[in-house]
Structure formats: C-alpha cells, structure tokens
Design brief:
With 455 residues, the protein is an alpha+beta fold. The protein is built from 13 helices and 23 strands.
C-alpha cells in the first residue's frame, strides 16, 4: 500500500512538472528583438505616401488611426472613442481618446489631430472643437468613419526639427532610408506595451537572401512570393498566407480614343488565359480575377466573366486594324512580373493583337500589383482607381447592387483589366509566438513574442 502511494505521488509530481514546463514554454515573454527582411526600399515613413505593398504594415507599427475596421468592415474605436454626424452626413464630430501621448511624450490634442487630417485631406474642413475634432465635407459622406481607418489618415505630429511622430506601439529609433529601420517598444502605449523590446527591419533584401536568412536564423519574419508558397511549405517552413488581398491587373495609361480602340481592348481581355497564369506562373496560388475586388470582399465577383474566349477575341479583332503595337511595362523588381508580361504578349498574339514588352517608363499598358487599401468596398474601389491613375468613381450607396454598379463603371472604362487576386505570405521563424493574421493582412506585431528556445 505504501509503495502504491509513493508511485501515485511520484506520478503526480511528474505531471505537475510537465504542466509547469509547458506553461513556462507558452507564457508570453517580454523582451528581445524581432528581425524582419523585406524586398521594398521605402525612402519615407510618411503614412500619407504610398511606399510599397509593405508600407501599410510598417506605418501601422508607428502610427495609429482614429478608427479601425473589424472583419465585417465595421468601424471600431481607436484614437477616437465615438463619432456622430449632422447635416446629412456632411458635418462629423470625432471624440478623442483621452490620455494618449506621442512618442516624445507630448499629448494627443484636437489641434494636432486636425492639422494631421487637413494635410491628408485638403478638401476637408477640419477644426478642433473642445475635446473633439469637427470635420466638414463638401458633400454628404457616410463612409467618413471608414475613411478614418485608412493608413493615409494615420495621425502624425511633426516636431520643431520636422521629425514625424506617432502614437503607435513602436517608436522610430533609427531610419536609414531604403536600407534599415529600427523600432523600439513604446512603453507608454495607450493599448498596452508590446511584448517585443524592438524590431529591426532590413530593406532591399532579395527573396533568395530572405529565405537564406530565415534558414540560418538571421531573420524571424520574411516575405514569401505567391509562386514560392507551395515549395516553402513543402520544405517545412512556417508559412502564413492571407486571403487574396492584392490585385494583379493590366492598366491602360490613357482613355480609349475611339469605339474601335475599345473593341481592341475587349479582344485583349478575352484573349488572356488567366487560369494558366495562375497554375503555371503562380503554382496554383491566388485566384483568377474576374473583377477588381475578390468575391470574399465584394460578394458579387461571379457576375463578371473571366474565362479565356480566344474565338471571341479573334472575332472582335477581325476587320479591325491596330495602328501600332501596344507597349507593355512592368515592375522589374517583381520576379514573376516579367513572366506574366511574356504570357500576355503570347495570348495577345494568338488573338491577332500586337503587344511588346518594354523597359521604358512611358508605355500604353502597365502590369501592376495593387494592394487593396480597405475591407470597405467603396474605399477599396477608390483606392484601386487612385493607384491605377483612373478617375475615382462616384461614392455610390451602401447596397450590394449599388457597389456592383460602381465597380461596373470602372470596368466599363476599359482602363483596367483584372488578372489575378494574390495572397500575401510570410515565412515565420521557429521562435515567433502568437502570430495573428487579420483579414486585411495587418501585422499585429505588438501582440507577438519570441520564445527563448526553439520548439
């Protein structure tokens, strides 16, 4: 009996020890530095500027917006705690969160917020109003709370030397434009101090060198190109993949000049074999894009055709004369863009159209990758139009049909031809814990921590 009791006591102690060790292994740890490698070479940290597809993630580490969007694209409080509208959604009052400090210890005031919003939105009349900010727009704007969630509307303060300051979870410790960014944890962050002590981000690192750095333990977070997702996963790397959030598209750099030119553009669209581009060039990743926005955001993408119809393309081209070959430009820093451009040239040739790839800056067509700036349909469409240098569509309404009509008008302009919706992917080091992916692919780095040992 005594021996049995000893065995039971021993087992209890052993199980208790395992539980304590497991708890210690999973308990968040403060400290350490996260090392990040990126391909982009941003030369500015201004959130109002478009830095590259990675820019929103970088800006969100340093700056806060007044509002954030949840997974259903509904506005939620951030630096603003509430808001209300009068005058048919033309005059908005934004009530600010008290006690928030910028990285230099100065307070978040209505005057600073108003100045920041005026710089990003010259057409708005923005003024301090007691403990709140008042925004007056030229026309009724029911999307204004969602607009305040855009990175370009992040709140920025400039000190006497011109240095930009934010209220975000990390402050800038050192920035070498195009080369390196070092961030330190904001100990006084209003939404709780990050677990990490610092983040070191190296810019201009090729995809190959990023993979080597991850393998050697010299990087904790890298980018994985869509065409490399399957191989990286098969090689045993930790890869996290977003929903298709970027648009790969052909953009005409000017409006069509005649009905005949419009028909030629239709022929080009029907000639494109998007399914082969996805399977052969992207190794099956991403989705064929029938429309500007993916189905999971818009809910109506299936209403647009996307299948190749070479016979129809040839029929449209028949009898039409193309005055000269279309020149096609692409981003030389995107490793898959040149292959995509070559495939477009071949598809167009099969339809009797002439397209020539060129390194020149001035081209008839551009192959572009456009990050979707918001989960709000209207703001996402407006962002694509801005990135493609197309006149922004009318705001439209709030119903599914009204959103469809806005997107239909953009497609009918024949300035943009969607090809693919691409996911974003990251390779994650083995010591990274609590990585949480958001629908818009934000980097919630203030919530992650680094384990002291590998699993």
């Amino acid at each position: 009996m005594q021996d049995d009791m000893k065995r039971i006591a021993f087992l209890f102690l052993a199980v208790s020890s395992l539980c304590l060790n497991a708890d210690a292994a999973t308990r968040p740890h403060y400290g350490r530095t996260l090392r990040v490698s990126l391909l982009a070479r941003p030369t500015s940290l201004e959130p109002i500027q478009s830095l590259a597809p990675t820019a929103p993630q970088l800006a969100e580490l340093i700056f806060d917006t007044l509002v954030s969007l949840d997974q259903q694209a509904r506005p939620q409080p951030q630096l603003a705690i509430s808001w209300s509208a009068e005058g048919g959604n033309r005059r908005w009052q934004i009530n600010l969160r008290p006690g928030v400090m910028f990285h230099d210890g100065s307070p978040l005031t209505p005057e600073v917020v108003a100045s920041s919003l005026r710089a990003a939105n010259p057409s708005w009349q923005v003024s301090a109003n007691g403990d709140s900010v008042q925004i007056v727009t030229d026309a009724p704007n029911d999307t204004l709370p969602a607009e305040l969630s855009l990175v370009r509307n992040a709140i920025v303060r400039r000190d006497s030397s011109g240095k930009i300051l934010g209220t975000g979870p990390f402050r800038v410790n050192d920035f070498l434009p195009g080369r390196k960014l070092t961030l330190a944890a904001n100990d006084d962050y209003w939404n709780a101090r990050p677990f990490l002590d610092s983040i070191e981000i190296e810019f201009g690192i090729s995809p190959r060198d990023q993979l080597i750095a991850l393998e050697l333990g010299k990087a904790d977070l890298i980018e994985i190109a869509p065409e490399q997702i399957r191989r990286s996963t098969a090689d045993g790397r930790r890869v996290v993949v977003s929903r298709p959030i970027d648009l790969f598209a052909l953009v005409f750099t000017r409006d069509r000049q005649s009905a005949e030119e419009g028909r030629l553009r239709d022929a080009l669209s029907y000639s494109l074999d998007r399914a082969s581009m996805r399977s052969a060039l992207l190794q099956g990743e991403g989705d064929v894009a029938a429309a500007i926005l993916p189905l999971w955001i818009s809910g109506y993408e299936f209403l647009f055709p996307a299948k190749q119809d070479l016979a129809r393309a040839q029929q449209i081209k028949s009898g039409l004369k193309q005055s000269s070959p279309w020149s096609l430009g692409y981003n030389a820093n995107d490793p898959v863009a040149r292959l995509m451009a070559d495939r477009i040239v071949l598809n167009a040739h099969d339809a009797g159209l002439a397209v020539q790839v060129t390194p020149n800056q001035q081209t008839d067509l551009r192959l572009v990758r456009i990050p979707l700036v918001s989960l709000d349909v209207r703001l996402a469409l407006r962002g694509v139009a801005l990135a493609a240098d197309i006149p922004a569509p009318a705001p439209g309404g709030t119903t599914l049909d009204q959103n469809y009509q806005v997107e239909r008008s953009l497609m009918d302009s024949q300035r943009i031809t969607p090809l693919l919706h691409l996911p974003r992917a990251q390779g994650i080091g083995v010591t990274v814990r609590n990585w949480q992916r958001t629908p818009d692919d934000s980097w919630d780095l203030e919530s992650i921590w680094l384990a002291t040992e590998k699993p």
